[in-house]
Amino acid sequence: MLWPFNHFRKSRVPLQGTIETIYGMIVTQAREPLFYRDLGVPDTVNGRFDLLLMHLWLVLRRLKSAEAGAELSQALFDHFCTDMDDNLREMGVSDQGVPKRMKAFGEAFYGRTAAYDLALTDSDEALAVAFCKNILNGQDLNKARELALYAKRAMAELARTGLAALTDGTWRFPIPQTVGTPA
């Protein structure tokens, strides 16, 4: 289980530059305009957060299968938590309000990733339904199907990526595409 307080453990932590590189790739991909313009993701704070969570989930899934992936995935999750905390403070959330919001972020992360993992054991349609509910606010199942196809392509790309390429940031997420766009 990913736990936000593991920085108290005494273990070898992946290089900070590695984590920043991977997290930066996740954030950059989650900001790709095609998701908002063509795939129906709301261009709101919540829409951007949900897309960030989806990409984080994709990378963490891949890291689970990698040698030494547990330490790297924990460090990546810790970096995500730190980033969310920093963003809340930049937005002016008080010191007393940050823990409540962080708890909500944690619940959102675990709830969505559990739904996505469960959907993967069912069908592509189940993943589309989960994306529709969590990312598209239940608004457009057809766009959610396209988002699910993108996620499947991203999973395949990540599965083909070796650990060295994964940790040094030489891999890339696929370009999001819509129906009628060549793959």
In short:
The protein has 183 residues and is mainly alpha-helical.
> Structural class, please?
mainly alpha
Q: Main beta sheet: strand number and arrangement?
A: none
Assembly form of the protein: single chain
Strand content: under 5%
Provide the gyration radius in Å. Answer: 16 Å
Total helices: the number is 8
Shape: globular
Please give the number of β-strands.
Answer: 0
For the residues shown, what is the average pLDDT? 85
Layout of strands and helices, then pairs:
Blueprint lengths: L15 H15 L2 H5 L7 H20 L4 H22 L6 H24 L3 H11 L6 H20 L2 H6 L15
Helix pairs in contact: 1-3, 1-4, 3-4, 3-7, 4-5, 5-6, 6-7
Give the key terms:
single chain, 183 residues, mainly alpha, 8 helices, 67% helix, globular
What does this structure look like?
The chain is an all-alpha fold. 67% of the residues lie in helices and 0% in strands. It is built from eight helices and no strands. Helix 3 runs antiparallel to helix 4. The longest helix has 24 residues.
